Amino acid sequence: MDLATVKRLVEARPFKPFKLVLTSDRRLDVPHPEFISLSPVSPTALVWHKDGGGEHVDLRLVVSVKTKANGTKRH
What digits encode the pLDDT tens for the residues 22-71? Predict the structure, then answer.
């Protein structure tokens, strides 16, 4: 996935929470735009965890994005 695609998701108004699905099938939650920082010069992002930690992600390893409407829960 490219930086522009993820940037559109982060800047969407209204924002819809999403998950980045990596090649390993690992999923990273982005519940709010403040939980992701995009690099202005490379296809990388820093995804913050709810516990305050974070991890760098190579966006080229993202195979899909799962979205859901704001305020709704999937059963």
Answer: 999 999 999 999 999 999 989 999 999 999 999 999 999 999 999 875 55
The span from the CA of 47 to the CA of 53, in Å, is 9
72: in domain: no
Count the domains in the chain.
1
Report which of 40, 55, 49, 53 is spatially closest to residue 3, judged by C-alpha positions.
40
Q: How far apart are CA 25 and CA 35, in angstroms?
A: 20
Extended strands (E) in 1-75: 18-22, 27-30, 36-38, 44-48, 54-58, 62-67
Six-digit token string for 54: 């974070």
